[in-house]
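Weekly puzzle thread! Below is a chain. First person to post its structure in token form gets bragging rights.
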Amino acid sequence: MGGLWIVVLILVVFGVYAVITYNGFVVLKNRVNEAWSDIEVQLKRRYDMIPNLVETVKGYAQHESQTLERVIQARNMAMGVKNENVKEMAANENVLSGALKSLFALSENYPQLQANANFLELQRELRDTEDKLQAARRFYNGNVMALNTKTELFPSNIVAALFHFGKRDFFELADDEAAAKQPVQVKF
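Winning reply:
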């Protein structure tokens, strides 16, 4: 009879552990989803700001249409990625950051543009958005790290496998684009 109680006690302990671990995975998964939502909000803000920025620059730099078209094309490419594909989205964001750098480098050739109130306000807002986007990426990657770590640790990896909690991708810059690792310069 004592052996039966030990088996029942072990099963109860394992059951309680499984429930607690499962709930921990749910919390981590929801934190990752919330963090991803924060990134999406900042990306949308960035995407909405870019056409205004391009239009402001276009008035001063009409013969620089190739640079302006690249910025809009990069924006449209970045917006077209499905939210589930973190790696592709990060790669497209790297292209967009590079295009924005070209736009700001172009604007340095137009002193009257640098003094334009609309351009200065857009520059300030973009800097603010880039800072918020960087913070959202760090928050997302921190939550992904916590989820991935718990998914790999024993014995929680057993619960993860049983309930199909998988690892998530980090939102990171592409290693092959050294220029993308530099922040977008909006300082004049």
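Puzzle host: Confirmed. Bonus trivia for everyone else. Confidence is low (pLDDT under 50) at residues 184-188.
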